[in-house]
Amino acid sequence: MDSLADFFKNINDDDQRKQLHDVLDWITERFPHLRLALVNESPMFTDHKTDIIEFNATEGGIVLISKSKGFEQFKDDISAAGYLKTKDSITIPWQKEIDYGLLDEIIAWQVQMNSNTESYWR
Fold this sequence. Notes:
The protein is an alpha+beta fold and 122 residues long. The chain is built from 4 helices and 6 strands, in the order ααββββαββα.
């Protein structure tokens, strides 16, 4: 897989493809300083060469992947939204609405936590 276009071609369901595309477009508009790239065959947003948040599409939904503890402080809000959380990921089931307010908080927190990081790893 060489490009984001290839990534999206692998999502067979048109509605699911559009849903994830809309999320990535929203992040690009809301956080214009973040760089969107394909890393490990998944869309990832970075800030000054450090990972902020990564996305993937699974049968179960949109998966957001973060460094350790990247979602911990949001666990109650994540649960209230009906999303599934593990240590390093959140799955937003396809049938759930995207909580853009929560997504905004998570990404803003990640940007702040990585503001002094000059490498991929925190």
